[in-house]
Structure formats: C-alpha cells, structure tokens
Amino acid sequence: MVWCRTGTSREQRGRVMLWRMNLLRSRSIQGAATLELAVTAPILLAIFLGIIEFGRAIMVQHTLEEAARAACRVAILASATTDKIESIASTTLSAAGIKDYTITIEPAVLSQACRWSPVTVTISTPYSSVSWLPLPRFLDGVRLQGQCTMPREAGTTNDGGGRS
Fold first, then answer.
1. 162 within some domain
2. Domain for residue 38, yes or no?
3. CA distance 36 to 50
4. Distance CA 145, CA 137 (A)
5. Which domain, by its residues, includes 76?
6. Residue of 73, 85, 151 whose CA lies nearest to 118
7. Cα–Cα distance measured from residue 67 to residue 65, given in angstroms and rounded to the nearest whole number
8. Is position 3 within any domain?
9. CA 76 to centroid of chain Cα atoms
C-alpha cells in the first residue's frame, strides 16, 4: 500500500494510517515483552535451580537417615561390630551414589554398652559432594546429617543382678 496516491479515497488512506499505527504499536509491544522476559528470566531461573537444589538436599537427607537407621538396627545387636555397621551404611549410601560421608557411632565401644542404653549412629556428608548442580549456590558449605538412636538390646545390665 502506498501512503498517498492521487485518486485514492479518504477511506483507503485511513486504512493505511491504521495499518501503520498497528505496526508501530506491535513493535512497541514486542519490545515491552522482550524487556519483561529479560527482567523475569533470571529470577525464574534462580527459583528453578533453587527448587532442584533444595529437592536434592531433602532427598540426600532422607537417604542419610535411612542409612543411619539401618546401621543402628545392626548396632543394637549383641553381634554388632564397627565393620558390620559401616558395611550396612556403606551399602545404602553407595546405592544412592553418596561417596563422601562420615559415620559416627556412640558409644565408641559397643561391647561395653549397658543393656537398654542408647546407641546412636550419625552419618554426615557435605552438600557440595552430593549436589546435582555444578556450582551449589544456595546450600554451599552446608553439611547434611542423618541420625538414629535406639536402645541396645544386648550387653551388660546396669541394675547389678538382672539378666543379660
């Protein structure tokens, strides 16, 4: 369409003007949409990565608690040894892909623990070693921990004359 040509009616010129105004308006709308995307995209990306990171932390936390529970169930038995306890925890953690962890057993010498005294197994790992993201930003420096405490089923009695 041409802007003004001899012999064109007023109606045709009006349509051309409307078409040009709509073209300019659509370009400004596209520019506004681009600006909105540029402002909101980093915020949405940060929220998305945060959801992934916190979800992974909760999943690893649950795995650590399950491994501590399984190890503690072995630790309360009379035949419990540190090697057996660590083996059970290691099996559970390696199935989940967790390699860098620390196991703490209290009391340190299970054979000296009294019957019904609490036995605690604690397993911890740094979040940076289990993160799915290359650079953990939200939970960098956090140490995840799973812990379980159960009463010892075997051992010496602490009442002086009961059964063992």
1. no
2. yes
3. 21
4. 19
5. 10-151
6. 151
7. 5
8. no
9. 30
